[in-house]
Design brief:
Chain lengths: 114, 114
């Protein structure tokens, strides 16, 4: 079984500042890793995914994440945030084989202040 | 192209009534998932359909919950004898077949049990 821990439930940041949203996971098998974003009253939108290869993954809207196997982490970063980045962010993992059901973290609410 | 479509977007019903939630996946996506998003439990996997294989029902919380997928496309999630703890947003997702394919989410159905 897998579990995902998002260490911060809320992160307030000023506009144009950098941000890091932390994610750690636990699994007895290798997993795929994902970050999703949820805007108010909407479903989840994929930001980026790590499947294999380079540990630095670039996604949409200027976000990137780095997979660290030894620390079982997959932190999300953006060098300069915008008001429009205000949303809830979810880290998730899935098995490499079998049903691809996602196991989600509890989410981090990112609030961008002007 | 069209994304995952869910209906209704909102549903308010009385405790004890049955409800049906509908999901239209992206055309060509043979994998379909239901998740539940609630304040107390976060995002939880409910059920997974893949082609003609038997569904993975391991996430259904009780026997009041059931789901079917007709013709390999549209899916219906049914909750019988609804309880107040069933109040949540029910999200549907679909994907192509392969464990590394991302899931695409609908905007969800917000279910409120009075």
């Amino acid at each position: 079984a897998q579990s995902v821990t998002q260490l911060d439930s809320q992160v307030p940041v000023f506009e144009e500042a950098p941000v890091e949203l932390r994610c750690n996971y636990s699994s007895s098998v290798s997993v795929y890793l994902f970050w999703y974003v949820q805007y108010p009253n909407q479903g989840l939108q994929l930001l980026l995914k790590y499947l294999s290869g380079s540990t630095l993954v670039k996604g949409i809207n200027g976000f990137e994440a780095e997979f660290n196997k030894s620390q079982t982490s997959f932190h999300l970063r953006k060098p300069s945030v915008h008001i429009s980045d205000t949303a809830e962010y979810f880290c998730a993992v899935s098995d490499l084989k079998g049903a691809q059901k996602l196991v989600f973290g509890q989410g981090t609410r990112l609030t961008i202040n002007p | 192209g069209a994304g995952v479509s869910q209906s209704p977007s909102n549903k308010v019903t009385e405790k004890g009534k049955d409800v049906e939630l509908r999901c239209d996946p992206i055309s060509g996506h043979t994998a379909l998932y239901w998740y539940r998003q609630s304040l107390g439990q976060g995002l939880e996997f409910l059920i997974y359909f893949q082609g003609n294989s038997a569904p993975d029902k391991s996430g259904l919380p009780s026997d009041r919950f059931s789901a079917e997928r007709t013709g390999g496309s549209v899916s219906t999630l049914t909750i019988q004898r609804t309880q107040q703890e069933d109040s949540a947003v029910y999200l549907c997702a679909s994907s192509l077949v392969a464990s590394n394919q991302p899931q695409h989410f609908g905007d969800g159905t917000r279910l409120s049990i009075l």
